[in-house]
């Protein structure tokens, strides 16, 4: 009977060996499953990393493009500062802005567009005109980044306000400006007017100088009033109903005298820029076909003069006279 009692443990021992084998197999399957799961997770992490890098690269490209188009507007440069242009003209369809104003046949725009030329005003003349602006603006100047001098109305930026320089400074003006200054100013205006008339196929005698026509001095100083916020997109015909043709004569050089400050035409789907160059004249019809803005000046000082024209003689003004 004793051997039979020993048989129990043997059977139990044999059964225990079979259970151990199955346990080993289960452990191996578990470890294999864990390894497969880890490999799958590692592979998934690698793909996620690749996807993240690709999406990040795409995002950078999209943001860069958005920055270039919306901020720098370099989709197309119409006029580089380093080139000297004889004449460049781009015709664009006219907007309906002119229909809400009285039309003057032979003058009100039927052909619209924008032009750039370096062949009307010499760099030497631009330097002389700039000195007029510098002397006038030395009498005042805005606390912010944009200062205005209007020789027609006498408006001059002083601090956060404007004063009439002819009344405010009286006879002192005779020490600041000369008759030769004003003669040069009138001659430059006349040549620009003729250039615009020729480009748009109208008679220069049908155009009238209108207000505001002014010098501007822009630097990187923080804006103190809304008058200093020159960078907002706008339409001249909407801002000033009398405007039909707008021109700018640049009196300093992009990248040499200042950074930023380029003129940007904001067309549908693309921005087109004009890089200022002393003596360069940029002109365009004043409606919403030429929505535009000026980039913020980042460093240095940008000088220019805006000379505007109307077809309505009731809105015309005369040339400034030194009295």
UniProtKB/TrEMBL annotation:
Name listed for the protein in its UniProt record: 2-oxoglutarate and iron-dependent oxygenase domain-containing protein 3
Cellular component GO terms held in the UniProt record: membrane
Species this protein is from: Platysternon megacephalum (big-headed turtle)
Xref: InterPro entries: OGFOD3, Oxoglu/Fe-dep_dioxygenase_dom, Pro_4_hyd_alph, Pro_4_hyd_alph_FE2OG_OXY
Xref: Pfam families: 2OG-FeII_Oxy_3 (PF13640)
Top-rank taxon: Eukaryota
MF terms (GO), sorted A to Z: dioxygenase activity; iron ion binding; L-ascorbic acid binding; oxidoreductase activity, acting on paired donors, with incorporation or reduction of molecular oxygen
Record keywords, A-Z: Dioxygenase, Iron, Membrane, Metal-binding, Oxidoreductase, Transmembrane, Transmembrane helix
Cofactors, names only: L-ascorbate
